[in-house]
Amino acid sequence: MSTAKQRKGNQNRSLDLTECDRDRLRTRLKSINLLTPDLRDETIQADCFAIVSLLPERFVDLLILDPPYNLTKNFNGFKFERRTVESYTEWLNAAIVEFKPLLKPTASIYICGDWLSSASIFTVASTHFIVRNRITWEREKGRGAKTNWKNSSEDIWFCTVSNEYTFNVEAVKQRRRVIAPYRTQDGTPKDWQVTEQGKFRDTHPSNFWSDITIPFWSMPENTAHPTQKSEKSIAKLILASSNPGDLVFDPFLGSGTTSVVAKKLGRHYLGIEQNEEYCLLTERRLELAETDPKIQGFSDGVFWERNTLAIQQKLQ
């Protein structure tokens, strides 16, 4: 075995389920026939479109919508086919029409997509909501292209139902190294701090994120889901646009990142996912979050730029 493969084997922290895990966690899942009046802190195994009419109106504080992008993708046996932009726009609009009655008048909405899906997202979102911004985050990984530019970014569209909404800017500041530190006339640091680990500045969040790491095999949050979002990226959305005790809803839950992060940050959650294996991964991650609430890249109340893990660990 090569050294690289040995190293990967020794350091692989990806989450896998045993048959005992599956048998134990399966009893926690909710189905259409097992819904309770208090739909909080649950994972529902169902097609979200088949169940949305059974959900109460105006109960969601924050909707995180990470639907299948306009790509052909196999989600553990559930295949989504790429279609024309017009057809994808119609599909996304139908989804928004279904979810919109669930939102409180003060709710915020984040819709994820790639460059092609974004054309449809803006068309649909601007019809139903107030579009506030478009976040673009840099993917540090990605396959090269010989006849096109390498696709190394994705978008998250920020929308609100009304002009009354939550945005906690102080909760999502980013800590960056100071390369060219400015000082005041008396020589004291200007908007930065001197620490044992170096000089850092806490900056206001922008709509370009270069600090996101896609989950991979050495990260304990990593699962077999093909389009899993990082906990760090979802934590930014939840901290900015909800308060402790609010309810965060994700109807395309995947392997559970939204629910897990909501739990770690003291919010209630509700997630819907049609694939049983992903639901079980969600419940296992929720179980682990009870004893390990850390979010990689978020510590000391701020989000850290890449390659600062050693510094973060010294502060804990």
Quick overview:
This protein is 28% helix and 23% strand.
What's the SSE blueprint?
Elements: H1 3-11, H2 19-25, E1 42-45, H3 48-51, E2 60-65, E3 73-75, E4 78-80, H4 85-99, E5 103-113, H5 115-128, E6 130-138, E7 153-160, E8 174-177, E9 193-195, E10 198-203, E11 208-209, H6 231-241, E12 247-250, H7 257-264, E13 268-273, H8 276-289, E14 298-299, E15 302-304, H9 309-315
Parallel strand pairs: 1-13, 2-5, 2-12, 6-11, 8-15, 12-13
Antiparallel strand pairs: 3-4, 5-7, 6-7, 8-10, 9-10, 14-15
Helix pairs in contact: 4-5, 6-7, 7-8
List the helices and strands in order. Answer: HHEHEEEHEHEEEEEEHEHEHEEH
Instruction: Name the shape in a single word.
Output: globular
Per DSSP, the total helix count is 9
CATH architecture group name: 3-Layer(aba) Sandwich
Strand content: 15-25%
* CATH domain class name: Alpha Beta
CA(first)-CA(last) distance: 37 Å
